[in-house]
Amino acid sequence: MILEKLFALKESGTSLRREFVAGLTNFMTISYIIFVQPSMLSLSGMDYGAVMVATCLSSALATFCMAYFTNYPVVLAPGMGLNAYFVFDLCLGSGIPWQEALGIVFIAGMLFFILSFVGIREAIMNALPHSLQNAIAIGIGLFIAFIGLQMSGIITKDPATFITRGNLDSRPVLLSIFGIAVTLTLIARKVRGAILIGILISTVANLIAGIVSYDGIAAVPPSITPTFFKLQFPNIFARLELIPVIFVFFAIDMFDSIGTLTAIGYRAELMEEGKLTKARGALLTDAGSTVGGALLGTSTVTCYIESATGIAEGGRTGLTAAFTGIFMLLSVFLYPLVKIVGGGFQISQSAFLYPIIAPALIVVGGLMLRNVSQIDWEDITESIPAFLTMLMMPLSFSITDGIGFGFISLAFLKLVTGRRKEIHPVIYYFAFFFIACYIGDL
């Protein structure tokens, strides 16, 4: 049997049926990205339909590569957090055209790909203290949740206090709160695919309330031409402020991938003497997927921790990932449904609320805060940099600034307490670089 030879099902103690169920479970768990990604990236001016197709294709191709080259039950898709960074920090915040933003994603992916062949990747990974690594993940979660709160209308602008509670009497806000409640209830009851089911239930509620209109469920996929190979490469030597941006894309993708693969490796019993035997192949696949995603027209593609749900259902080989990839590929025909889910409710000439997508962002952001207990709150040289990293990301609306403040404060506190040797010299280099960038903005 071809599948047996390719994926070693018997040797792994699994079966075709079990791998299919695991693959379907993985798809149910991560497919919310099909709805969220085009809604997010379209805010930067990208074509909604093209982004949806690019999301499905990049996810499917990346997952197929992971299945073939590593035989791991790991699923890949555009990462939450970096898509928000792409839109709100680069395109809307810094005025970088989305074509150049895709070019930056491509460069960061190539950097990750090249460094996966040599030991520099391990050196950079070991340079960041665990407290700062966890703080970055938590800060991104707060950033995503803050964006969701704004998109839902629960939080709105205020001339006196900058932000304040929105109008909880309005239909879009009430429907957003309903979506949050439904999704959290499903998660609390450990329902598989809770976020996806929450999105679908919210969609029905919004249709009934007349917030969005029904345009069908399936159709011929839209063209990917508006984003396909449309990336442009900025002159980073003339614009040195883009170097930290590339570092952010590279570093977050690397830390997220290694952390996810390690966690999944233990869960699926893939570790041998504490190491993943095919770690290099998995990381190369992750990095190559980011490069491919940028070419297709989507933000950083990375390994998903939600792959653990398929493993919990018995998935043990790359066939689980392959089945998930097939489902992602078939999703390109669901464009009318995706367009309904991503539909916004206009509240002013230039402002929209997104009561279907917003609850998913809030919930996903909240789930990313689980690592807060991993920070050493007793050591002020570790806790304050972590605190500033987490706080500055949502308040400055910039992941780059959050990381910059974290690096600078960490380097400063280690120096003034005579503990400079506790952190890698690369931290000091980047702290100095961030300071130079901030001085250049004065």
What features would you describe in this structure?
- The structure is a single chain.
- This protein has helices at residues 2-7, 16-30, 32-41, 48-70, 82-94, 98-115, 120-127, 130-152, 171-188, 194-209, 242-267, 279-296, 307-312, 318-330, 335-341, 357-367, 380-396, 399-416, 425-440; strands at residues 76-78, 155-158, 162-165, 271-272, 275-276, 301-303, 345-346, 352-353.
- By secondary structure, it is mainly alpha-helical.
- A hairpin with a 5-residue loop joins strand 7 (345-346) and strand 8 (352-353).
- Helix 8 (130-152) runs antiparallel to helix 18 (399-416).
- The model has no long low-confidence stretch (mean pLDDT 86).
- List the helices and strands in order: HHHHEHHHHEEHHHEEHEHHHEEHHHH
Please tell me what the overall shape is: globular
How many strands in all? Answer: 8
Structural class: mainly alpha
Strand order of the largest sheet: 1-6
Residue fraction in strands: under 5%
Residues in helices, as a percent range? 55-70%
Determine Rg (CA atoms, Å): 21 Å
Count, helices: 19
Could you outline the blueprint of secondary structure elements for this entry?
Elements: H1 2-7, H2 16-30, H3 32-41, H4 48-70, E1 76-78, H5 82-94, H6 98-115, H7 120-127, H8 130-152, E2 155-158, E3 162-165, H9 171-188, H10 194-209, H11 242-267, E4 271-272, E5 275-276, H12 279-296, E6 301-303, H13 307-312, H14 318-330, H15 335-341, E7 345-346, E8 352-353, H16 357-367, H17 380-396, H18 399-416, H19 425-440
Antiparallel strand pairs: 1-6, 2-3, 4-5, 7-8
Helix pairs in contact: 2-14, 3-4, 4-12, 4-14, 6-11, 6-12, 8-16, 8-17, 8-18, 9-10, 9-16, 10-16, 11-12, 17-18, 18-19
